[in-house]
Amino acid sequence: MNYLEEYYNSYDEEGRLLSRHGQVEYLTTMKYISQCLSAFTRPCILEIGAGTGRYSVALARQGYPVTAVELVPRNLDLLKAKLDGSEQITAIQGNALDLSFLSDAAFDLTLLLGPMYHLYTREDKLQALSEAVRVTKPGGYILVAYCMNEPTVIQYVFGANHLRDVSDQDMLTPDWHCKSEPKEIFELIRTEEIAALDEAFPVERVKLIAADGATQYMRETIDSMDDGTFARWLEYHWATCERLDLIGASHHTLDILRKAE
């Protein structure tokens, strides 16, 4: 069993997105997914790295045909267990680096909302993006999620007092970029690195979104909010999540790309 399977076999990813603070990332991502889908009459959706189906199942239940590809068998089993047979969803075990079982230009909307968290080399990131772009129709959208570097430095290295540990293990570059490898599970990135990946493909960036903004810095406060206050927090977050001066400090970002026609 590899590090990734071991992690997801014990981690409650579904619970994270169902928590109040996790809902900010989920609702924000769904908001922008809906905006992209509105451009099509009968869109076909692909989710690469579908996890337990938080997005794929929700979209299938809205009536969209969905293909969900997931690497980790346990996650795929949890996804399938949610289905009642009414959803137009095909769930397949597969790797984001090799989607050769899927045809070119087959999908209007391609979601890559998890795999980039766990790819540690530029070559692998480019390969995953290449596959996502290949299977997307000209004029279609590719939505790519990333975990950002600075929140980890702020919250984990300094906030949780791990500076000595990460320094002793040589896990920081001189310019404070976290070094990641598979045993760390998550690969961290900066906005300029995302832009450099995009430049390798026939896509244009529509928007780069701070998917959770400041939410993760104040999880306990968010989780204790009453419904009215939480609704206002969402208003604030959605009013600021496209601001370029805030995006790099968000724990998660959403890169919205459109494939050239």
Estimated structural class: alpha/beta
CA-based gyration radius:
18 Å
Alpha carbon gap, first and last residue: 41 Å
* Secondary structure: number of strands: 8
Please give the structural blueprint.
Blueprint: H1 3-10, H2 13-18, H3 20-37, E1 45-48, H4 54-61, E2 66-70, H5 73-81, E3 89-93, E4 107-112, H6 122-134, E5 136-148, H7 149-159, H8 163-168, E6 188-189, H9 191-198, E7 203-210, H10 219-223, H11 227-240, H12 244-247, E8 252-259
Parallel strand pairs: 1-2, 1-4, 2-3, 4-5, 5-6
Antiparallel strand pairs: 5-8, 7-8
Task: Please characterize this protein's 3D structure.
This protein has 261 residues and is an alpha/beta fold. It has one domain: Vaccinia Virus protein VP39 (Rossmann fold, 3-Layer(aba) Sandwich), CATH 3.40.50. The chain is 42% helix and 20% strand. The protein is built from 12 helices and 8 strands. Strands 1, 2, 3, 4, 5, 6, 7 and 8 form an 8-stranded mixed β-sheet that branches. It is globular. The termini are far apart. The model has no long low-confidence stretch (mean pLDDT 93).
